[in-house]
Here is the input.
Amino acid sequence: MSPLFSRIDRRRALQGTAAGVVVLGLLLWWLLPLGEDPPSGSITFSTGTSSGVYYEYGSRLRAELARDMPDLDVKLSTSNGSQENVERVATGKADFTIAAADAVETYERQHPGSAARLRGVARLYDDYVQLVVPRDSDIRSVADLRGRTVATGLPRSGVRLIAERVLKAAGLDPAKDIDAVSQGIDTGPEQLKKGRIDAFFWSGGVPTAGLEKLADNFTFRFVPIGPDLVAKMHGQDDATGFYRATNMPESAYPTIQNGSTVATIAVSNLLMTRTDMAPRLTEWLTRTVIKSRDGIGAHVHSAQLVDLRTAIYTDPLKLHEGARRYYRSVKP
Here is the structure.
């Protein structure tokens, strides 16, 4: 090889290396701020029941936070769900949590004073309302639940909130027209399998581990919740404006749905905190949430839907200052 071509090849190699270093530097800047020591301290993250998506997401997010902020102690606290989660953060019993937008709006209307402290960090993924019955059940609509034993979710859960609204939209009084029992995703599937209940409501990301496990050894189906019921729900109160008619994708539970979608209701989930949470810590946590999407999503399918472009839309909550700093730093 001639000396001329040798020099050119070396120059091109050096230029390629330099470009690679620049790209790597920009990537590291986006993922983790250079020249900063990670925040430390202790925070409490309120999750949900152990068989639900909130708990699984929170557990895997804690592992990601441990990598980015090794001196931050993240304590997970199980809960009954959205309503309890919102109350915990608003009253200082927890620092971060996930809750459905309708539960946040409901709390804000009921407790305007303490709700003023609440702030959004990111819009995460949607919950789907799932009304589950045995495959051979004669229940074909929500109205068919009249006189039946129905699990409507745990007290202070998001499931309980939305189940009661669905029932009312179908012309049923949850206190009189059904035998309502307090069962969640932890216990409802087993109770259905044993024939102790006729149906149960669940609202969560899909697929949910508790229902995947049930599908392994019990044949069930989903009762559709059509757009007509969603329209009736919208007139109940302000919080119901966060519900939208949609279809649960056919890929959610393949062995149960057999390639068919299910008409239902969706509501967005929000990662939230309080105004007094340190902006720097919140900025770092927001960054970890966004950059860990694929890693967590490999295990929690719903997490794959976390999107930088939509994460900022945390209505009805204003963005926390720390989260806003992060989104501004990565804005194109």
